[in-house]
Structure formats: C-alpha cells, structure tokens
Amino acid sequence: MTTADAQGETPAPVATSVSAKVLAECIVDLGITHIITVPDTVQKSFLAYMEQQDKVKILTVCTEDEAMGINAGLYATGHRPMMVIQNNGFYASVNTLKALAFDAQVPTFMFVGQFGRDLTKDSNDNRRRGVRMLEPTMQTWDVPYYRLENPEDIGVVEEAYRKCQEIEGPVAVIIGAPTS
Amino acid sequence: MQRQEAIDALCEYRGDCISVATMQAASPWKDAGQSAQDHVDASDCMGSAASLGLGLAMGAPDRKVMVLDGDGSLLMQLGSLVTIASLGPSNYYHFIFYNGLYQSSGNQTIPGHGITDFCKVALASGYKKAWKVSSKGEFLEALPEIMNSEGPVLIEIEIEREDGPTRFPGVPVAPQIKALREQFT
C-alpha cells in the first residue's frame, strides 16, 4: 500500500527513521554486552553511535554464520550478545540459525535491516525480492519478528528481547528505515 | 597418524580447557570422556565450530578453548580464520583434523587438497603460530609448546583415511550450552 502526501504527488514514506541515540539507549538499558555485526547500511548511524559511545563491545565479523556461532559462545559463557545484520545476511545464515538458534536453544536477538527498501511501500509490497521475502522467510522458519517502522514503535525492541529470552531461540526486530 | 591417536594426545593436554568438537572428531572425543562437561558439540552446522569456539574464548578469557575442527568444516567458513585473527583471543587453540576428505559424506576429496596449506592461510590471516604434525610422537612433542603459546594458534593434524561407518555423538547441544552457562551466571 502506498500513501500520498497532501498534494497527492509524492508518495509519503510508510517507514521513517528511528534515532540511533534512542535505539542505543534501549540496547544499553537491556544490558546487551556485545553487538556482533556484519555491517548493515540501514543501521550505519546506529552502529557508528554505538561505537562512539563505547558502552557495548562491537565485534565486526565476516559472515552472519560466524555471528551466530559467536553469539552462541558468548551466551554460553554468561554474556548478553545481540546481532546487527541486514536482510541479505539473514538469508545467508539459515543453516546456522537452524542449528544454533533453534536446536541449541540459544537466545539469538537480531536487528535485521531492510536494505534496499522503497520506503513509500510496505516491505511486503516492495519490488526487490530481498526486501519482500524477509518476513515470509521468517514466517517459514518460525522466527518471531517485530517491525520497527517508525519512532513510536520503539517499545518493540524491549518486547522482542524479552520474547527472545523467554523462548530461548531467535527473535528479530526488522529495522524498516535507515536509522538517523 | 590415526585420528584416535591424536584424540588420545589431546586428552592428555586438555586440562581445564573448554572444548568444541565437530563432525568426525566429536564421537571419539565423547568416547574419550571429554564431552561430559565444559564442552559443546558443533552439531548439524558444519563450519560453525571455529566461530562457536571464538565466542567461548572471548566470553571466558581466563579459560583456554580447544576447537576440534575438520578440514572440510573449516573450508565451509574459511573466513572465520580472519575473524579469529582479527579479534585475537589469546586463549584460542584451533586443531584441524586433516585427511583431505569430506569423511562424513563418503570420503570425497575436499577442494584444495594438496594445494591449499591451512597453516599458511592461518598465518597469513594473522594467527600467532601454526604447526603441522603427522605422527603421534611429533604431536606429543609439540603439544607442550602449543598449549603454552599465546593464541590464536592453529595445528593441522594429518590423519589417515577412515573407511568405516561415520559416527555422530547424538548428544543434544542445548543442555551442553545450558550447563556451561550455569558456571558463568
């Protein structure tokens, strides 16, 4: 679905930026100890802000498979890690997701950026397959997910984190628009 | 060297290391009594042993971590060598059982067999040291230096082809992870 602005000419965005600072405060409040990332364009300002704040360790890795392995190892040694990746990276990590997040029952809390999204459309109506197929892929794999589409959705971050600890498995927050 | 000889040697030097094992190293490690505690099998996710071990090593910097990896497994996430070297845990000991074969799927030859040198790749990636051993005596002689070295280090253990049935420990990973986490929380 596309909405139009007052003049009816330029479609208005259906997803808008969430502040990196607000997002960072959420993460710190949750007690996250490590962010494991294959950097994501959509979340670049968030990653930069976290790096600047130096309150959570940032581990930049080569692949999302590795990120899930490291997440499991950190969790097993008493830490509270999370992952910051993009939609394409989620697709790349599904075998490890199956084994380490689901079968090994490791809470795997992920921010997944909708890289390449046309912000004037619902992600499920986007032309780009990488955007359009993210939610159906998560549904297929029974990965609970929450949409962070606008600043007023910020409460889903804590909700998603609690869910992740409760089910001891993967839970995603889908970052719908570039962080600011 | 037989795989079992290498396992026996590693058992002697494990001490209070946390261990990770994958594919055809996992069952003999379990049979040797090494899986009962402080251990996680990288099961059903070939290639992930190295990064799982990296998370453990970073999470428990006061404990040494032994990763019992396979040659085909490492190839699946070869970039892990770069990540491990980049994050540089000094307590990381990466043992590669090298037979040049995908043993679990029927002993097909791995890509790069006879061409690729894991020790050189590890060193070029930034590992602190690397060893290649092909006999039990050689391995036993090197192990004190290996385990006293600052990681990350890689040891390529050349083992003989095995044609028997493949074995997997069949131990669920979730309780292993929970048991380990209990020590740290």
Short description:
The complex is a heterodimer of chains A (180) and B (185). Chain A has 180 residues and is of the alpha/beta class.
Protein traits:
heterodimer, A: 180 residues, alpha/beta, Rossmann fold, six-stranded parallel β-sheet, two-stranded antiparallel ribbon, 8 strands, globular, B: 185 residues, two-stranded antiparallel sheet
Could you walk me through the main structural features you see in this protein, from its secondary elements to its overall organization?
The complex is a heterodimer of chains A (180) and B (185). Chain A has helices at 20-29, 44-53, 64-76, 87-92, 94-103, 129-132, 134-140, 155-167, and strands spanning 3-4, 11-12, 34-37, 57-60, 81-86, 108-113, 145-148, 170-175. By secondary structure, chain A is an alpha/beta fold. Chain A has one domain (14-175): Rossmann fold (3-Layer(aba) Sandwich). Helices cover 41% and strands 20% of the residues of chain B. By secondary structure, chain B is α/β, with parallel strands linked by helices. The N and C termini of chain B lie far apart (40 Å). Chain B has a single domain, classed as Thiamin diphosphate (ThDP)-binding fold, Pyr/PP domains (Rossmann fold). Chain B has helices at residues 3-13, 26-31, 49-59, 71-76, 80-87, 118-125, 136-148, 173-184, and strands at residues 18-22, 39-42, 65-70, 92-98, 101-102, 108-109, 129-133, 153-158. The A-B interface holds A 34, 59-63, 65-79, 81, 95-96, 98-100, 103-106, 168 and B 40, 42-45, 47-60, 77, 79-80, 82-83, 86-87, 172-174, 177-178, 180-181, 183-185.
